[in-house]
């Protein structure tokens, strides 16, 4: 292979489609390439098809049509255990009555690997995730973070090329969730594997992903690094779904303006869009203002740094002028029939 040969994608989806018996299309002919050794988050509202996509990659759900390639190998019809993928589930789904060691060794036991070999491999993996000293503990005797590491070791024992994570953090309390996501990111880089993580949380996806895949109604709306998706949303849906944006109808068509890119001034002070403050929410480092555009039912949100708010404290009922720099009004690219969704 010469230096210019592109590396095969860790996972490539080609026109992947899932139609359930009742006729509804859960995943609608999606094309996607996921780069090797990357953290990819599938993100979207409930029902957009992200879990179905993950389950098809895992082999836990049949495909209606299309192909799934793992490092250029067509795995579409292979059983789950033969694909080179492993799955980590919500809340880690450890067996409560088994020790950490037996949890990790479990799938080797199912494969008929002898006891000495499987326990040795399980112990080695627990050492790798810094859990060797707690191998005999049961899940109930471990912290959330320790349980996550056992779940990771359990998923890794089959030596997958790609780890699939289905909302692994969603059942945790907010504090632990933030700690655990930092750990997941650390382990992905440390192990040099590709992680594909399904979440409905924009914040989680932005914190974790090298590549975000935003889905809606079974289709891919946008693929890209978090910074690009946030600053250059490909559609009105992405701008609204990612949050932090106002979608405004201007003479140039619809534009997205970040709520921290809108300037406020008292209404008598110049030209701009006239609005009335309806809500003031103190959030610590910033203050979030809700406004109604005068003469319309449209709402706008504006985020002010705390210091700016202290200098000019606005209150519900105040009339203000809204302005933004022209380069901070993001227009949407024309809609393509077939979304281009290449991340590798
Ligand atoms: N077994 C099934 N039979 C019929 N329809 C299904 C089945 N599983 C999922 N669906 C439908 O397929 C669509 C996509 O579902 P999917 O679970 O992939 O969405 P999701 O984005 O993961 O949502 P959530 O975040 O709520 O889990 C939904 O409309 C759902 O109702």
TrEMBL record:
The record's listing under Pfam families reads: ABC_tran (PF00005), TOBE_2 (PF08402)
InterPro entries, per database record: AAA+_ATPase, ABC_SmlMolc_Importer, ABC_transporter-like_ATP-bd, ABC_transporter-like_CS, Mo/tungstate-bd_C_term_dom, P-loop_NTPase, Transp-assoc_OB_typ2
* Protein name listed in UniProt: ABC transporter ATP-binding protein
Statement: the UniProt record of this protein carries the keyword Cell membrane: yes
Instruction: Give an example GO biological process.
Output: quaternary ammonium group transport
Write out the coiled-coil annotation as residue ranges.
none
Per the record, its GO cellular-component terms are:
ATP-binding cassette (ABC) transporter complex
Give one GO molecular function term. ATP hydrolysis activity
Organism from which the protein derives: Hydrogenophaga aromaticivorans
Per UniProt, the keywords (alphabetical) are: ATP-binding, Cell membrane, Membrane, Nucleotide-binding, Transport
* Sequence ranges assigned to domain ABC transporter in this UniProt record: 11-242
């Amino acid at each position: 292979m010469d230096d210019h040969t592109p590396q095969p994608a860790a996972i490539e989806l080609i026109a992947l489609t899932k139609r359930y018996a009742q006729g509804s299309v859960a995943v609608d002919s999606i094309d996607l390439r996921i780069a090797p050794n990357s953290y990819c988050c599938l993100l979207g509202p409930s029902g957009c098809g992200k879990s179905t996509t993950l389950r098809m990659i895992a082999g836990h759900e049949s495909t209606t049509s299309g192909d799934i390639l793992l490092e250029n190998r067509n795995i579409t019809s292979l059983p789950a255990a033969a694909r080179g993928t492993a799955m980590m589930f919500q809340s880690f789904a450890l067996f409560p009555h088994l020790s950490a060691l037996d949890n990790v060794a479990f799938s080797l036991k199912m494969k008929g690997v002898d006891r000495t070999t499987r326990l040795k491999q399980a112990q080695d993996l627990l050492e790798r995730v810094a859990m060797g000293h707690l191998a005999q503990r049961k899940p109930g005797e471990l912290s959330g973070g320790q349980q996550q590491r056992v779940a990771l070791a359990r998923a890794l024992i089959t030596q997958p090329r790609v780890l699939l994570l289905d909302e692994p953090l969603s059942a945790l309390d907010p504090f632990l969730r933030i700690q655990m996501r930092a750990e997941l990111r650390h382990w992905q880089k440390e192990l040099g594997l590709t992680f594909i993580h399904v979440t409905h949380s924009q914040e989680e996806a932005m914190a974790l992903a090298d590549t975000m895949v935003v889905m809606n109604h079974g289709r891919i709306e946008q693929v890209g690094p978090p910074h690009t998706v946030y600053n250059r949303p490909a559609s009105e849906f992405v701008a609204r779904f990612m949050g932090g944006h106002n979608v405004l109808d201007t003479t140039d068509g619809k534009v997205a303006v970040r709520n921290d890119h809108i300037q406020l001034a008292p209404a008598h002070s110049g030209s701009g869009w006239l609005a009335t403050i309806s809500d003031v929410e103190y959030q610590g480092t910033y203050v979030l203002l809700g406004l109604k555009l005068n003469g319309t039912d449209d709402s706008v949100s504006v985020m002010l740094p705390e210091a700016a708010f202290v200098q000019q404290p606005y209150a519900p009922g105040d009339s203000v002028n809204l302005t933004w720099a022209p380069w901070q009004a993001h227009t949407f690219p024309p809609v393509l029939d077939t979304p281009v969704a290449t991340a590798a």
